[in-house]
């Protein structure tokens, strides 16, 4: 159960980061990346756009891997379900074997 919660939190963090990275990008190479186009900048606009694109792909792959991994760590409730199913079946069997006592048919109405 603890590993499933950890994976779920990591998926949530990955989703939030991906939303932020995608919002920073612009489809035409502008967006917030174009605001950093000063002449003395270490990374140019193109390198910033490449970085954001690589970050987007990395986060998408991480989310895919985490989602697939979460399938294997989902806590199963098969033990509880089988116990409840066996209790229901036991009650049904008891009701079939227990005779109904003091049963009286409802009076018929005569017209």
> Count of helical segments?
3
> What's the overall average pLDDT, rounded?
78
The main sheet comes to: none
What is the β-strand count?
A: 0
Strand content: under 5%
Class inferred from helices and paired strands: mainly alpha
Q: Give the SSE order as H and E letters.
A: HHH
Cα-to-Cα separation, first versus last residue: 67 Å
Residue runs with pLDDT of under 50 for 5 or more positions: none
Shape: elongated
Q: Tell me roughly what share of residues is in helical segments.
A: 55-70%
Topology:
Layout: H1 2-24, H2 45-72, H3 78-97
Helix pairs in contact: 1-2
Task: Walk me through the structure.
The N and C termini lie far apart (67 Å). α1 (2-24) runs antiparallel to α2 (45-72). The longest helix has 28 residues, at 45-72. The protein has a domain at 2-73. The mean pLDDT is 78. It is elongated, with a radius of gyration of 31 Å. It is built from three helices and no strands. The chain is mainly alpha-helical and 111 residues long.
Notable characteristics:
elongated; single chain; mainly alpha; 111 residues
Task: Write a concise synopsis of the structure shown.
The chain has 111 residues and is mainly alpha-helical. It is 64% helix and 0% strand. The chain has a domain at 2-73.
